[in-house]
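Explain this protein:
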Amino acid sequence: MRTLLNIIWVVFGGFWLFLGYVFFGVLACIVIITIPAGIASFRIAGYALWPFGREVVETPEAGVMSGLSNIIWFLVAGLWLAIGHITTAAAQAITIIGIPLAIANLKMIPVTCFPFGKRIVSGRGIV
């Protein structure tokens, strides 16, 4: 069932969200100091492309730098990517089949806004 939902997800919006994360990741990697934000964006891009069967958990050893990085991320990219998730979720929620996709889209907003200090895990461990 997860594979079927992931395939439907990619076709109806997941690919475009993936491209958004890759775009912001490339922009962040242009300047050396923002490479950690680029890496976080690429990590979330994989999650945005194939989200079902995976979840985001807090990293307990995250420090103060994660908090500061999250604030900068939110102001530069997180807000815009969250708006993309909300827009995509609204379009997906129009149909009955799209409702689970819209819910998954809305569940991605916390990691979209504040990606540092989090990791993506599946039922088999860390992804």
